[in-house]
Amino acid sequence: MLSKNKVKYIRSLEMKKFRSEYQTFVAEGNKMVNDMLKTFECELLLAKPSWMATQGDIPAKELLVAGEEDLRKVSFLKTPQDVLAVFKRPTEQIEAADPSGQLIIALDGVQDPGNLGTIIRLADWFGIRHIICSNDTVDAFSPKTVQATMGALSHVHIHYTDLAAWLSAQTCREIPVYGTFLNGENMYQKELSATGVLMMGNEGNGIRPETAAHINRKLFIPNYPQGEETSESLNVAIATAIVCAEFRRRIG
């Protein structure tokens, strides 16, 4: 039975302070939950009897059979799915995100949950296993971001840190740090490396000056036809997709 206390607990995880306090997050939907059960420790799983009947052993500490009304009470979606699960948030080691041997995405103040979720999904698609986020980047484990990842959160490690300090440490090691700017060089004509940091900025303000100070390779995504008046800028998730695709096309 789904108690009032459990409803209150699950609903509280919409807020970052409670996700931080309990170190848990919510995922909803058949594919999403099944993907995450392979990676994350499941604290609580609620599902319709029809969903339960199609599963084998479910690795969850607590299983509750839930009806339509129960799922509606706890769901963060307009249309509740057949299953909702509460997972433990992973403990990440930022030392594993070493850009000397791999390509890493860094995000400076990205605020939209949908954008972050899409970028995580892009990272997964292009084989980028670590994303470094400034401390004020939106929480990757908010319900909206988790849903936008479409399960990619199971494959990509998210780290939050003082971004300027972390970048400073990388540039001291002479690691390439790329960023997109309107005054950058045409990325299709620049040499791109197989390792390093790809920096993307805030939706409205771009990359902050204190962060930009550590970028040693400025790129520009040219519009087409070049020189004609177009939109001022690209959505950060779309820009990330274009740049990642070019890196992977060029270097594999």
Task: Give a short synopsis of this structure.
The protein has 252 residues and is α/β, with parallel strands linked by helices.
What's the alpha carbon Rg, rounded to whole Å? 20 Å
Straight-line distance between termini? 51 Å
Structural class: alpha/beta
Strand content: 15-25%
Which sheet architecture does the biggest sheet show? 6 strands, parallel
Strand order of the main beta sheet, please? Answer: 7-6-5-9-8-10
Taken in chain order, the helices and strands follow as HHEHEHEHEEHEHEHEEHEH
Gross morphology is: elongated
Would you kindly provide a written description of the structure presented here, covering whatever features stand out?
The chain is an alpha/beta fold and 252 residues long. Helix content is 34%, strand content 22%. It has ten helices and ten strands. It has helices at residues 4-12, 16-22, 30-37, 49-52, 68-74, 113-125, 143-149, 163-172, 209-212, 236-251; strands spanning 24-28, 42-47, 63-65, 83-88, 103-108, 130-134, 157-161, 177-186, 196-201, 217-220. The strands form two sheets. Strands 7-6-5-9-8-10 form a six-stranded parallel beta sheet, with helices on both faces. Strands 1-4-2-3 form a four-stranded mixed beta sheet. α7 (143-149) links the parallel β6 (130-134) and β7 (157-161). α6 runs parallel beside α7 (143-149). The longest helix has 16 residues, at 236-251. It is elongated. The termini are far apart.
